[in-house]
Amino acid sequence: MNSHLGPSPDRINRMHARITERTTAERTIPKPAVAPAQGRVLSPRRPLVWGVAAALAVTGLVAADVVFTPGQQGVEARAAQVLERAAEAAILSTDLVVGPGQFLKIVQEGFNYQRPSDIVTDEGHWIQGSKSVFYIPADRGGDWMIVRTELPPTDFHGGPEARADAEGRYQRMTEPGSVTHGVFTATLGGGVYPAPSAADFSGYSRDPDALYRYFDESVEGSGSHEQAMWVGVNDLVREPAVPADLRAALFRVLARIPGVEVQETGVEIAGQAGVAFSRVDAGSGGKSREELIVDPANGRVIGSRDVLLEDMPLLYAPAGTVLFSSVTTTSVIDHLPDPATFPNID
């Protein structure tokens, strides 16, 4: 594809995969060094995000200062300092307490730009949104309830081919039996969405040095090795129910990746203010900026987004357009909703 057409099909597909989570080809989450006895994932045909990296020793959290990489200076050094503060905030914060009979409710909402299937001859775009809600019992060994909703496409630009393609895709994604539109029960090791146990996170070291080596040796894909590490760490730190100590260690890994910058003021996503850590991948043309947005008060991830850095005429999208956005909120509830109310479940 010509370079002036914007992000490659591979990149567009990876952004879409973050919302629909139906494909693994474009994701760069590191694979466990040793496969667990039974893989557990939260979505079908997805890389093993929750797997136990058995080759990594499980250690206590290392509350050490950031070790700057050689040549790290200026904006990168500032980003590392702010990431260290986020790590310290995560250490001091406590995960939400879920009492007996209660449920941890995690809501992930987002959208991304979609283009027609034939990107050579068909111009235009539309916005495709989706919502995933996880209801996690206090006893992680119990059944989870997962509600996934594909939202109708909106904001059409371009010819009739774009609208027809969008409506056709939406119909296929919401037909009976779809794994991205419906109410699902997750159990440990079974079902369409096998639920993870606490052990699935314990295999990741909390020592930033060991965790950095793990990602450095395991990631693949993307336009550069540094970008593959950025994507791999981001995909893990944004996972539902990641414990605070692991989140702190992941922030310290991000602080060592070259090219990471920070915006400390004027950052807002879905009405929530935060600090944005970002990276532009020169290896993929540098046409968009990927952002991870964190609440500096407690080190929790608010969301993430991709922002276009130059005009993309084929998509009718000017520079500054948000190509992908995802926001996460958490709360504790006393009762599960009625599955019969789908797709209007609160």
Automatic annotation (TrEMBL):
This is CU044_5270 family protein. It comes from Mycetocola tolaasinivorans.
